[in-house]
Design a protein that fits this description.
Strand content: 25-35%
Distance between the termini: 88 Å
Largest sheet: 9 strands, mixed
Structural class: alpha/beta
Number of helices: 3
Shape: globular
Helix content: 10-25%
Radius of gyration: 25 Å
Length: about 300
Amino acid sequence: MKKNVLWMLTGLALVLAFGLVLGGCDLNNDDPDPGPTPLTEAEMNEADFGPGVTPTTHTITTKADFVAAKNAIEGGGNYVLNITVEVDVEGVYITPKAGAVVSLRGGGTLHRSTNPSNGLFELSNANSTLILRDAGLKGHAGNDTGLVYITDSSAEFVMHGGTITGNSGRGVEVSDGTFTMNGGTISGNTFSDSGAGGGVSVYQGTFTMTGGTISGNTTDRHGGGVWVYDGTFTKTGGTIYGGSAGTGLANTADDTDEDGYDGHAVFWIDGDSNLWKVDGDITGALSTDNVTGWTAIIP
């Protein structure tokens, strides 16, 4: 009898101990996903510039710093712009030399506050590359060009994070060349005066979206979020909000001359001049390689 009681007490103790251990564990794994581990500076450098390449770093805290970086970058090479505060660069913009690679980091913002003719970066030279990691690009109400403007077929803009906002000449403008959006936010940009594409416009270029958010952009014609004309658009991740997403999130297009042509989220004119649109939120895949998910306007 004593042995039985002893075994029962021992078993009870083990059960209680096991319960205490489990009490500190989440068997359902409900903890929030911490996301990917941030890259170290060395890892970013290797990803942006290639193995063994040491870029030149410019810390940007004033307009004069930005001008000095402009002069260096337009002479060629590999550069990191470490933007640590919001800097009003007024009308200054950078056109990287052919083959130059520029990576924007630091968490601060470049603000173009004047001059309607250009954005902040123009990729018009062969194999020039701009990489946005965690900085902000901000425009102004009088601008008529994308904050990033890509015009060479071999030029590339890659967005891993950060923001592109507050510009009246679109957020990103692709006329030839390639734009890849892996993360970050394009929001609060506009294009009016019979223009198309509030957030991103693509004319005979390529736009690939694997992550990030396009929201709160507007145009008075077609494609509040994204406008594509005879170009390539492939979306595998991220979110493009439609016209009913609510204040601050909705991309809107208001084509009063051609009722039904709006395309609040995305508007696409294919190579045969057929018209397609998506007005609602887009969280899944979408591509100009096929018409799945599109609404035909003029098929």
